[in-house]
Design a protein that fits this description.
Two copies of one chain form a homodimer. By secondary structure, the first copy, chain A, is α/β, with parallel strands linked by helices. The first copy, chain A, contains ten helices and 18 strands. The radius of gyration of chain A is 22 Å and the shape is globular.
């Protein structure tokens, strides 16, 4: 089975505390590496966990609060100093390009690799990237400034060959690839056709992961993240801080759990924790009262889908 | 004796490696706290070492290479989120103000405290700050972009009262402060004067610390940092990388040692280490062949003057 996993690099909200770093995570699908948000210190975290950051080809920045992007100029510079030549794609608010350019201007830096900047649309969800294995779309979050989440989906997976039947029917190897993708098989003389359904079984369902940070409780998300294998949803506060959550346009652990439940996801990963909580188990317990398959994001941990 | 110490927060050059953070250090003189450079992750380092960053009133940024300032927007934001109201003074290239403003613009941040920005002059050394205890000046470094170092000097210290003589001569307490600063004492009837030199001894000499990063070997520094109690001098490379040092306008450990020797300083602290050196003792040994009182900057360590 192809890899599909998420490594948490930072799960703190704006004020880093208790050794927790601001938002960032690395999503691997097959052999593709996607960085999602890039708070201050992300490059140190990538190194700490021995993750090779030159393999990252796409970086998605949800919004322009510092705790989600201030690590980006340093990461781009380190990629440059380490001799990167592969192009890099960055998806973010159009203002991000201006921020990156001004840093390069004053440091007299001309990067040795190309940066392709893709401005996000904060009005409606868009397909951002697609290849033969994966599809990545934006979702619209509701926060104090323009903010997007991201949905990572595997493309349809190949059907599974029934090995014994393939051998017994002497179907040549050259035809197997097309059979995996649904084709019937006709022998060269053209008279006998074997139906695909008789020599394959259904593929595993494609996996889906959604990143939802920062946002208030937002029912509009549900149709987009429905049936995900895992979602990361911010849980900056607990219900006892409801007023503060509303005021700063953040979610509580309970909000995250309600979204996970209504969207019928398999697992919920809580993150973006306020510096007021040293013991995060309180947030976990609050969410579990509504959605038992809840986990706390932990830095350095890899979560497999 | 009043405090005068330097805590290293980061001693890596541009590419952070082996857990080392980019340039930053906290200088304490009496009860004043000065931050010198603010590479990515400085706010995490301040927290890691339990240093109260709200006490910092002045921040000096040597130049606009990212490893010397990318931690600043995050630190300013955290000061804001923690409710700071005290004004903050920032000294740096005028471009830094533009960089900070653009970050605040896109995150819709209006800081709750005043930031007074002081543009550095990169043509000639200037007095940057002075009060009753301390004097801070810039020095001109030679690097690939405009770059300043900083010299921290105690003001003249008070003369030491000879307690037994003061008592025997019945000099009133109200007169002692002026005597500490060199005044003679005349009795109220106006006929008898006690000379200052007979009731005091010389003060301890004022202490001096110089921060020299980033720069090539530069003899012009010597007159400004002469007789310092300690200097921090960059030593990005060793002599075997002389060509690379010249090309990137950095010093070797040997360069730093020559400056320390020629300036007749008491102690040399090496820093700004290239990611190519895991074992820094090689740099230390190179410098010690010329200047024995050399030490390696170590993150979290406090160096007392």
């Amino acid at each position: 089975m192809e890899a599909f996993d998420v490594t948490i690099l930072g799960c703190s909200s704006a004020l880093p505390a208790f050794g927790r770093y601001p938002s960032s995570q690395l999503v691997q699908i097959a052999s593709r590496y996607f960085l999602v948000d890039c708070g201050e210190g992300t490059q140190m975290q990538l190194r700490r966990y021995s993750l090779k950051f030159q393999r990252i080809e796409h970086i998605f920045i949800s919004h322009l609060h510092g705790d989600h992007y201030l690590g980006l100029p340093g990461l781009l510079s380190s990629m440059h100093l380490l001799g990167r030549t592969d192009p890099l794609h960055i998806y973010g608010d159009k203002g991000l390009e201006e921020i990156l350019n001004i840093n390069n201007k004053y440091s007299h830096t001309v990067l040795k690799y190309e940066v392709h900047f893709h401005a996000l649309d904060f009005k409606e969800p868009k397909l951002l990237f697609e290849d033969d294995k994966v599809k990545i779309s934006s979702i619209i979050l509701k926060h104090s400034i323009d903010c997007c989440g991201f949905v990572f989906e595997e493309k349809n997976r190949p059907r599974k060959l029934i090995k014994e039947k393939i051998e017994a029917l002497k179907i040549p190897i050259a035809s197997l690839e097309s059979i995996k993708w649904g084709a019937d098989y006709t022998y060269p003389e053209g008279t006998v056709t074997i139906l695909n359904k008789d020599i394959t079984t259904d593929p595993l369902p494609p996996r889906k992961y959604a990143y939802c940070s920062d946002t208030i409780y937002n029912q509009d998300l549900i149709s987009h993240i429905q049936n995900s294998d895992m979602i990361y949803h911010e849980a900056t506060f607990m219900e006892d801080m409801r007023e503060r959550a509303d005021q700063t346009m953040h979610s509580t652990a309970m909000d995250a759990a309600r979204i996970a439940k209504d969207a019928n996801v398999k697992r919920l990963l809580l993150g973006h924790f306020s510096a007021r909580y040293k013991d995060l188990n309180l947030l976990l317990e609050e969410a579990k009262t509504i959605f038992p398959a809840t986990y706390l994001a932990q830095e350095g941990e890899k979560y497999y889908l």
